[in-house]
């Protein structure tokens, strides 16, 4: 990944271990800086990618009704505390002009947007805007439901809360009935 300095992360993690009063040279911690650097290269792998590039596959199929992929699991990192927030994204669009994309590409889009220091609101909007940009659809609706570990394991200490964010574009912004239909589909169990 360009812009990713593995060695610098290792040095920083070693310094954090020292700063919390640990001994980075004890056996159990010797490999930890390198492990954390490898983990960060995974969880931040979306940082140097453009989420829109996940939507390069376009099929010429005339379908002008809702396409919804729901319950897309994601893990992201809260940019304020660098601890995970995670949950599900539901991604819907109404194509127009015979431009549809591969279903897996919607999940790839979520993945790329999530794997970076992130805010839930920005994650939600980034997914919606990538769809608008690449597919020029009649409408887009994205819903993200997540739990933030920074609210669960520290600070306000409220495990089990769910934060729900939405981003709607086009006809799903202007037409409340259509929007309700899509949101109902998203939340049907
Ligand atoms: N809007 C938004 N806030 C977030 C997100 N992730 C974490 N936060 C919040 O970011 C805020 C940071 O608040 P600060 O007062 O700067 O930091 P803090 O003292 O650690 O805050 P507490 O978490 O309340 O202890 C907290 O209220 C978090 O709940 C997110 O995705 N979106
Ligand atoms: Zn946080």
Automatic annotation (TrEMBL):
- Domain GTP cyclohydrolase I per the UniProt entry, residue ranges: 9-186
Give a Pfam family name.
GTP_cyclohydroI
What is one GO cellular-component annotation here? cytoplasm
Q: Which domain of life is it from?
A: Bacteria
Q: Name one GO biological process term.
A: tetrahydrobiopterin biosynthetic process
Task: Please state the pathway this protein functions in, per its UniProt record.
Answer: Cofactor biosynthesis; 7,8-dihydroneopterin triphosphate biosynthesis; 7,8-dihydroneopterin triphosphate from GTP: step 1/1
User: What InterPro entries does its record include?
Assistant: GTP-CH-I_C/QueF, GTP-CH-I_N, GTP_CycHdrlase_I, GTP_CycHdrlase_I_CS, GTP_CycHdrlase_I_dom
Instruction: State the reactions this protein catalyses.
Output: GTP + H2O = 7,8-dihydroneopterin 3'-triphosphate + formate + H(+)
Return the PROSITE patterns for the record: GTP_CYCLOHYDROL_1_1, GTP_CYCLOHYDROL_1_2
Question: Which major enzyme category is it?
Answer: hydrolase
Asked whether the keyword Zinc is assigned, the reply is yes
Tell me the subunit arrangement.
Answer: Homopolymer.
What is the name of this protein?
GTP cyclohydrolase 1
Q: Per the UniProt entry, what species is this protein from, by scientific name?
A: Sulfoacidibacillus thermotolerans
GN (gene name): folE
């Amino acid at each position: 990944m360009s812009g990713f300095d593995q060695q610098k992360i290792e040095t920083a993690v070693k310094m954090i271990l020292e700063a919390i009063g640990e001994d980075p040279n004890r056996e159990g911690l010797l490999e930890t800086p390198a492990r954390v650097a490898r983990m960060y290269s995974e969880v931040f792998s979306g940082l140097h990618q453009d989420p829109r590039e996940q939507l390069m596959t376009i099929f010429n199929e005339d379908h002008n009704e809702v396409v919804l992929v729901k319950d897309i699991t994601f893990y992201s990192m809260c940019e304020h505390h660098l601890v995970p927030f995670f949950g599900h994204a539901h991604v819907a669009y109404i194509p127009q002009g015979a431009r549809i994309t591969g279903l897996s590409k919607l999940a790839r889009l979520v993945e790329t947007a999530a794997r970076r220091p992130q805010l839930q609101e920005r994650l939600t909007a980034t997914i919606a805007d990538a769809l608008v940009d690449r597919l020029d659809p009649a409408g887009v609706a994205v819903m993200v439901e997540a739990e933030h570990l920074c609210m669960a394991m520290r600070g306000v200490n409220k495990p089990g809360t769910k934060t729900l964010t939405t981003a709607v574009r086009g006809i799903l912004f202007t037409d409340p009935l259509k929007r309700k239909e899509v949101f109902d589909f998203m939340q049907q169990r």
